[in-house]
Protein: Sulfatase N-terminal domain-containing protein
Amino acid sequence: MHAVTSLSMVSLLSFGYLSMDWIKPNQVEEHTQNDASITFAPKQPPHIIFILTDDQGFNDIGYHNPDIRTPTLDKLAAEGVKLENYYVQPICTPSRSQLITGRYQIHTGLQHSIIRPRQPNCLPLDMTTLPQRLQEAGYATHMVGKWHLGFYRKECLPTRRGFHSYFGSLTGSVDYYTYGSCDGPGLCGYDLHEGETVAWGRGGKFSTHLYTQRVRKILSTHDPSRQPLFMFLSLQAVHTPLQSPKAYIYPYRGMGNVARRKYAAMVSIVDEAVRNVTYALRKYGYYRNSVLIFSTDNGAQPFTGGSNWPLRGRKGTYWEGGIRGVGFVHSPLLRHKRRVSKALLHITDWYPTLVGLAGGNVSQTEGLDGYNVWPTISEGRESPRLEILHNIDPLHRRSGLASGSGQQAQHVWDTSVQAAIRVGDWKLLTGDPGHGDWVPPQVLANFPGSWWNLERNTEGTGKSVWLFNITGDPYERSDMAVQRPDVVKKLLERLAYYNCTAVPVRFPTDDPRANPDRNGGAWVPWVGGDEDEPKWNGVYKKGRNKKKKKCKLCKLRSFFKKLNTRIMSNRI
Structure:
């Protein structure tokens, strides 16, 4: 009864958000944002260090799971502010684009999938980025690590988008030692860059160590008393491939699952990297006037060692396991430290928050979806954010649904479209949210199938609408779509509102000119500055106009591929 009563109270309180005007943008009175950016900025602009990890799950940090050894991260988080209601995007490019622009994917054209190495696509060139705004505020801006925001022409490169220096990889996944990156069989190339040139001959050193070494070099050569610094350390770890020096694997030798063992070792290397960076901040005089932000870019992939337990889903899905991010802020400038924040925050909020801290004018950038949340983080004030559009992907539709399926009968929203939104305590998903199982930590060598089946999602494939009270049900186990059609309708109206503001999808077909074999063996820009931009019509046609030839062998291969996937899923 206690639990039911609590849930009912939460539902009643959260329904207050549903009485707002659903035709207007979210959320709070204007003076709250304006006052925040003026009142709470430090007298001297702080040094900003933003550390972004790749594919680190909710259960892959020590203060959520003691099996993972991250003493440095645990200490920094404990002394700062842990962000326990913080959201990112489910995959790489979307999270990075929203961090750099402060805009939802639907407002950049990157609402579908990631930017692949051979696609003539990148972060829209007409948008002012976070580092560009910080440069205008007098900052030295440096980036080290993974870019993954497109590089088909030189104008897309980090050094053209606001960073004074860049050292790292442009694609989404590289070998940690050789820096080779592949986009299919036989389409491999070298991907380590220094500024706008290929950094040949740097292979052999583990990338997390190499990137940390570069950050420390920048910190040692910059004068913190003369110019504020923005350091964006975008680590490749803990993305696949699962690679780690053996010395880091040994402490996890008790883990029977080999993938989990290697993954945990890679997390420990990240912890060591952060320890070395924070040591350098103290040694070279940055620390007392610094703000350090730690964040993952999306949830983990359980089948390659990661864990989002007890959250539902995984990387690439709009369940909480794909988008609830690990994050914290550590800074001597925080007014209320050593606490846990349950305030609703999103990765788009870093843009106006950091520009505000730098003393910049956020109002110069129109169309931001983020909010200045520094008073929320530092003072413990209420978050100005009451809702998050997780995404609307018009190119991802759930097949097998009737034209009037689900709530579409209300003439509000086509529920076959993949979309997700959070408003107050409520979260709505439509279409195909992705793999929806609850995956326990895979620490055993042979994971028992009976355990797996206890957490298997058994909902029918014809379903296209889900509703959860995330505050009362953070693990998304009680779908309330049937019980609360009024809430469903309101959230569908919000999706329809946001969809009216969306720009066409940017997802062009692969360009054969990108092949590293044509470019000296490396992934580099391949389109000249005088060539016209692709025309974005919002529809990515995968050869639909071409007649497909019947191929019995192709059908046979497809059958065995699906069969193998099912077998592997059952075994795991």
The first helix runs from residue 2 to 14.
